[in-house]
Amino acid sequence: MKVAIQGELGAFSHEAALKLEPDAEIAPYALSAEVFSAVVDGTADAAVIPIENSLAGSVVEHFDLLLRHDVLVERETLLRIRHNLIAMAGAKLEEIDRVFSHPVALAQCRRFLADHAHMESCAYYDTAGSVKHLMELRDRRSAGVASAEAARVYGAEILARDIEDNPENFTRFFLIKRVGDVNQTAGANKMSIAFSLQNRPGSLVEALTKLSAMGTNLTKIESRPVHGRPWEYIFYVDCQLRSQEEGERALEALRPYCELVKELGMYVAGSRENIRD
User: Fold this and answer.
1) Would 84-160 and 190-272 be classified into the same CATH topology?
2) Catalytic residue among 36, 100, 112, 173
3) 112-142 tens-digit pLDDT
4) Domain 84-160 classified CATH 2.170.150.70?
5) CATH top-level class of 2-80+169-181
6) Choosing from 12, 171, 195, 216, which is the catalytic residue?
7) Does domain 190-272 match CATH 1.10.560.10?
8) How large is the average pLDDT for residues 32-47?
9) Could you write out the DSSP letters of every residue in 63-115?
10) Alpha-carbon distance 8 to 23, whole Å?
11) Is 173 a catalytic residue?
């Protein structure tokens, strides 16, 4: 299976993709929009995308792309995010004076960077990309903050492991496929939905009350602006399900109150118990 990811080889999306599809061929793309296009046009069989980090919150661009494209979530996994200081083989920790990584990764390693004040933090577009960059330049005085997979991919060396401030750092990833290619997983117990409401007082309360009356448990709700329509919003909801039929009833229950209802996927919820330390 050819699986598209956003970012360079060795990114956390690469690690998540191999967790979901161990034998996958990984196809890296620079932009998330390119990842979705690759799935829709058949260039890739599937894509693995981050949707939410337990510390940084939702990846809002990916919600918008899920709504706009004819794709569905087939599976979900949780990945423990372990940040590592990575440099060229033979480099010494005390010699490193610049540290490159994505701004979110740098922000999640503030304590380590504060304890090594001689290291200047430098924002870069991608975690794994920072390691690729320093290896291409043969820069022995720079390091990147990235996954252990990035060190393996680019032949670099880990100088310090698990440098993140908070060990309770997890990212949810979706495996998405074209509509029609999705294999419905037996025992699906979670559903993601996007909906927009009729423009009248109380419509959101009525819609959520209807779901509550069915006993459907909402685990997440988030709003995003509708592009080109100021002050109108799309709501993204995750629901726990007891059966596939409950999910179908929930979708039907929303339709009388909504201008748009779109199922984004029905799948088995990711579990922390399945995370390899």
Assistant:
1) no
2) 173
3) 999 999 999 999 999 999 999 999 999 999 9
4) no
5) alpha beta
6) 171
7) no
8) 98
9) HHHHHHSSEEEEEEEEEE---EEEE-TT--GGG--EEEE-HHHHHTTHHHHHH
10) 18
11) yes
